[in-house]
Amino acid sequence: MSAVSGVRSWAGIAPDVIWVLWRREVTRFFRDRSQIFGAVSRTILWLVILGYGIGAALREIEGYSYAQYILPGVITLNVLFASLQCAIALVWDREVGLLRDVLVSPSPSLSVALGKLFGGATISVFQGSIPLLLAPIIGVDLTIGSVLGAWAVMFMMGMFMTALGVVVATRLKTFEGFGSISNGLIQPLYFLSGSIFPLKGIIGGVGFLDVPATLREELRRAGINAFGSGWIVQLPEWLQILVYCNPVSYQLDLLRYVLLDYEQLPLQLDIGLTVALPIAASAIAAREIKHALRTAGPRRRKKAAPGGAA
């Protein structure tokens, strides 16, 4: 344990610094109602409009209605947006000189990074929980265990995506550039994660959802998820490769298992990557923030010098 200029830290971890930066991110989120509006709007458009619209044609996927199937995907979409919106604030912090203020403070860069990432993950959990409010309406039974499990997965996913966004943000100079890249990240990660279509399975089986819930559960235990006039879906091999290479696929699959007790990828791999990826990405983000803190000072001095001279 060391104490430099009143900042107590251990191995670069200063709880006070983490707490202050976490609180700053969360406070800024709740003061910006547009982000909450965006999360509610995405939930209605994707879960209600798309879910019931396409669900009219696709009665069920592996025994689940289409709205039930895409619920974890809509949660993931909210988490992706929340994480990258939190990361983009780093560009603004650099423009207004906040990074320079952090530079001259005794705050460890690791704690600065963790405060930022924990803040982004917390906001991700909040926005990801909005679709959960509609779960009972679309027929998904939630338990305390499933909600806690979903929050844990959302938090880890939020950590990973915020760290990824921080790495991108530290290398860009303008909001416009980050906006273009974030859209280029969110859309491929989302559409190639199996969020709105299954990797494989039986689609359109008529009648399964009309069977009493207790009997459906017995059929699922026996390996029967759909019957009737369904058809088997198998993605093209090249598309399967892209889905398997997408880290969000495994986090989403674990989220679907927690909420629906249904997974399409190896569960052990889902858990391992969901835990390991945020840790690795956080280490990289901390290194990038440390580098940004070192270069923020010289950039500001160069910008402030007459004629732009250093």
TrEMBL record:
It is found in: Cell inner membrane; Membrane. InterPro entries: ABC2_TM, ABC2_TM_bact-type, ABC_2_transport, Nod_factor_ABC_transporter. It comes from the Bacteria. It is a multi-pass membrane protein. Pfam families: ABC2_membrane (PF01061). Its main location: membrane. Residues 34-292 form the ABC transmembrane type-2 domain. This is Transport permease protein.
